Amino acid sequence: MTTAHRNLVRPRPLTSIAHSALLTGRLLRALWRMPTFLVIGLVQPVIWLLLFGQLFRSVVHLPGFASGSGGFLQFLTPGVVMMTALFASAWAGTTYLQDIDRGVMDRLLTSPAGRGAMMCATMTYQAIQTVIQSLVIVGIALLAGARFPGGVPGVGVTVLAAVLLTLIFSALSNAVALLTRQQATLIAISQFTTLPLMFLSSAVMDLHLAPNWVGNVAGYNPLEWAVVAARQAMVPGTDRGTTGAHLGMLAAAAVVMGFLATRAFRAYRKSA
């Protein structure tokens, strides 16, 4: 195979970036025309903050609750940000299912756009939504009385952790959509994974109050990694080593999951 032929077959880096940008723009234009889904996605987090934040505010006085100095709302906010990112990204595969049903996916696969660019576009689209929703949630928490000594850098780390978490689970959701092509299957798998991950973490409750086995399992939970990184960054006396380690694990998982999800296109083409 000649060099010229290899260049035609394998997309150049700049071309892949351009394809990713164009495909991301396509998704963002759809969101701009119908932002309802973005707004609806904020209803549940607001309920968690304003209802749960008041209902369980006295829990910080329980013996063993290690994060009681700043109030329960300060403790809860990073968890709500991460749960919102998790639940939203778990549904990311519905975009692929819609494209499959409309025949758009087959046309994209026969276009010059690379598989990596297609996967990157949907993950970037979900990440942009996560950034917007995360900032809104933190703003609502501030209006409700929460205070975050970590300041703007702490909020930045929180948003970064939420984005990395989104990349992991949006890639997983995309892979499930490509492999199964079934909305019901995607819903079942999303519910099967998100709820256990939420309760096997410190998103809504300090793990010092949970059984030891829950804390042990949480150590392998990407949601817990994101919550710990965010919470450490937003409280006084930030442990940068812990924050950096958890962000690193999230980034590594996002790269691996993105690679594996891209390979799911092969299985989709074989079964087409």
Characterization of this structure:
- The chain is mainly alpha-helical.
- Helix content is 77%, strand content 0%.
- The protein has 13 helices and no strands.
- Helix 8 packs across helix 13, helix 9 packs antiparallel against helix 12 and helix 12 runs antiparallel to helix 13.
- The two termini are 28 Å apart.
- The N terminus is likely disordered.
Q: DSSP helix count?
A: 13
- Distance from N terminus to C terminus (CA atoms, Å) equals 28 Å
Strand count, sense and closure of the main sheet?
none
Estimate percent helicity: over 70%
What number is the mean pLDDT? 87
Cα gyration radius (Å): 20 Å
| Overall shape | elongated
Structure class: mainly alpha
The proportion of strand residues reads: under 5%
Question: What is the N-to-C succession of helices and strands?
Answer: HHHHHHHHHHHHH
The total strand number stands at 0
Poorly predicted tracts of residues = 1-9
Could you outline the blueprint of secondary structure elements for this entry?
Blueprint: H1 3-9, H2 13-33, H3 36-40, H4 43-55, H5 72-90, H6 93-102, H7 104-109, H8 115-143, H9 151-180, H10 183-199, H11 212-218, H12 222-234, H13 240-271
Give short descriptive properties of this protein.
mainly alpha; single chain; disordered N terminus; 272 residues; 13 helices
Question: Short description, anyone?
Answer:
The chain has 13 helices and no strands.
